[in-house]
Amino acid sequence: MASKAHKLKQTKYIFITGGVLSSLGKGIASASIGLLLKQRGYKTTIMKLDPYINVDPGTMNPFQHGEVYVTDDGAETDLDLGHYERFLGESLNKTNNTTTGQVYYEVIRKERRGLYLGKTVQVIPHITDEIKKRILTHEGQFDFVICEIGGTVGDIESLPFLEAIRQFTLERGVQNALNILLTYVPYIKSSGELKTKPTQHSFKTLMEYGIQPDILICRTETKLSKEERSKIALFCNVSEEAVIDGLDVENTIYEVPLLYEKSSMTELILKKLRMPLNHLNLKTWSNFVHRIKHPKNEVTVGLIGKYTKYRDSYKSIIEAFIHAGSINNTRVNVELKNSEDITGENVAEVLQGLDGILVGPGFGSRGIEGKIASIKYVRENKIPFFGICLGLQCAVIEFARNVCNLTDANSYEFDKITKNTVIDLMEEQKKIKNKGGTMRLGAYPCILINSTKAHDAYKQDSISERHRHRYEVNNNFRELLQQNGMIMSGLSPDQKLVEIIELKNHPWFLGTQFHPELKSRAVTGQPLFISFIKSVLKRKKSRNSRNNGNKKEQITVIN
Ligand code: GLN
Q: Which has the closest alpha carbon to 305: 384, 379, 383, 386?
């Protein structure tokens, strides 16, 4: 018992709140601090505490909330968990994301079971106790637990969370719990100065809740001057060195940790939490950032979907392209194309200039025909194609219609009448009534077939990738699809589910039923994305050299 207790770590907690307005990048700030502590040799994890009442974001529209990020254990979580995983290079799980909905659900469940008998159940202490219990989930297993509190200081909804971290900081002591406020210092063009007043107000609000921030990260367009820094320090009751520049980064969010270190962020944290400084190793990370900022090549990929007005709906895919680009020394420009605007007639025009296309995940029938028209075009014109989840399903429908001559082929999701449902509801899904948390979710193993693009990319016989869908390739059509040249290059271990499809006689045409983007990490990337970008680049280079060749010929003729 004693030896087990000896192994437990004395966990330190860092709470990150946001002031003034949303979208300041608390997720990136939390992920960056996590990376820096990890690179100083500390075992670190990050949690997101979300103040909304949904149990999870799974039932929210991407326009409301951006992408839903799925963990290995099948939790549908906030997209900030994607940042945490990409920066930390580690897999998190359902305990890393808590919502008000989950907290109340649990407290009400306990109340019904009679566990509070005799008591009035209240926000303080019952809700706050449940929040504190969740913050403690990783106690003893990590040196640092970073907790990002969603929303903005002053929101009614985040009050119980702020009260919980106030109590927590008091109970643990300031050497064990640290508070960071990420705030905004706007630049006012007309007067040509940075304004500190909104930050002072956010600080005041936080103090009203009993929380004194130890560090302020100030998001600014330009560096804080000496005077501005000392003014913020004075009004917010912190030392000047605790006012950190959160300058806008020009090129890439992956530069944020490097920027923080210029302001000695981790030294400050470690001193306040009485931890040894340890050596900081950022070499690999700096090289990764350098490759992103100074690529040798450039390609443009079209991302075809229907949530194109809000780039956060495809956050992990866009990030996976950055990672794969850095490995291929290539800047990947991602152009979002709304599939509702694409038809068989205009497809060549809309896709003109794209070096490859990715058809993304999605739900519902809107925009499906535009996706199918795009896939037909890139299949016939040998343009690299990557289909993810719904993207694979559309590729199968297109192939069944145009190659196997099943003209009414469709998915049961979009057409309840056709007999040729090449994509159909899984057996277990047919009984499901509730929408929340009931899809095929989380990591599942997949066996790769030798001598396929998938196998070449992963260089492994067996992989594990994350899922979020209800429909699958209908096995009744598998043989027909294969006879016509579709390769099922990844299958579930019992061979019952098709996980990856690809085509022969095409430079790169591959679809996955899972979401490979969810496991793409900074520095290392994801094998399929890396392979796809490699083929996109190859095509672009060969076309360029062909065009140059043609130009030379023309010049010769003119001469
Ligand atoms: N709507 C499809 C399904 O549920 C695809 C889902 C997705 O793209 N994630 O199977």
A: 386
